[in-house]
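Dear colleague,

As promised, here are the two records you asked about, laid out in our usual form so they can be pasted straight into your sheet.

NAME FIELD: protein one
SEQUENCE, THEN STRUCTURE:
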Amino acid sequence: MTMRRMVMAAGGAVLPVAVISVVFGNQWVAEALRNEAGPAYGGIWQPVYWLQTLRWFLYADNGMSWGVVIAVDFGVILSLALLAALVAVGIRAVDPNRGALGAVITGWWACVVAAGVGGFITGLFVELVIDSAEFHKIGGYVADGTSFGLLYGWTAGLGALAGHHLTRDRGLGGRQPVQQPFAQQQYGQQP
């Protein structure tokens, strides 16, 4: 039962983050939002830009090299895989019957760590691909990743909670079985 709970919680945590990545992180939506907002990084646009932290590309455009495309796409895959692994390991410490808050915190924490580490690896690979002294973006990728995790990690937490809740043992009739005292279980009613 533990393996099923781990897989369901990990899948539940990855699903909303992957949906955010697919919807807001694709290159067409990102380009449309950046054209709408312009160069204004701040105000209401900053949380919208953080939605695009786990961005992905199908092809290189606007002067971007294929090396950057591969580095960014690898960072997204790494972040999602790390999120699944961290939730699967972390959910083992959560009580199967009463761990609702623990499941949410585990998913949220895992999202912060996974997006931060994924941002670090993405920034490192982008630095290796771009041979220019003006591009030192590792810190920016890490900051954007952890900001995404802090601001939108609750979606991964709720997904982990859903997976955790679906695999709970409900006993007979949907209720938890009532535990009888040891003496009554073993020997029956004493006169």
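NAME FIELD: protein two
SEQUENCE, THEN STRUCTURE:
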Amino acid sequence: MTIRFVCLANSIKEGGRCLAGIQLNNNNEPIIGKNGPIWIRPICKTQHGKVYTHWVSHITLLDIVEIEFTGFAEKTSYQSENVFFKDDDLKVIGRFEKHKLDELCDNHYYLFGNWGKALSIEEAVVLDHSLVLIHVSKFEIIEKNDMDNPDKKKIRLFFYHNETQYDFPVTDPVFLNLYRNNPRILNVVKSLFLCVSIGINFNGLHYKLVAGIIPASLNSNY
């Protein structure tokens, strides 16, 4: 069976990539369930489900992608979106219109049930999702020292959503490359669509990540 989705994340994950997006019908219209848009995360039978980078390096955010669905992954509480697909078979068949993203944004007050940077294992267990799309207009890049790699800075995004402050690491490789080439890149951007996800268990916590960054409105050319 073929599944189609708009790519909203193609992020760095444990030596590979995490690909995710919202499922579309054959008319490229978002599929909406009782709790909102239907998200999908194609995974491989690898450690943590990572997808090989060379399989998805041709895919950019807002691409419409088709995969051959081969089965549902075992449900791991919050990661309800995971599905298996035919290896190395990810076809880009078009582009999704950016202006349609607003209707797909999450309307919960907090991101994944709290205002913190992470969830405990107990908090993650009660969630039924691990991906959301939001629209923000107040944001700033923060650079922090990387203790493991002193020559490289950790890039985080500080932003407001529903009057709440958040500060998450950025795992969007395309944005990170653009930012490192031009640290003032967001100066021309008035608002952003962010794909926010929950990471794997790390020392008893599931950290929240900015997995995809899409400029929503600009002051000038991006």
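A couple of things worth noting about protein two: The domain at 105-218 is CATH 2.40.50 (OB fold (Dihydrolipoamide Acetyltransferase, E2P)). Residues 24 and 30 are 4 Å apart (CA to CA).

Best,
R.
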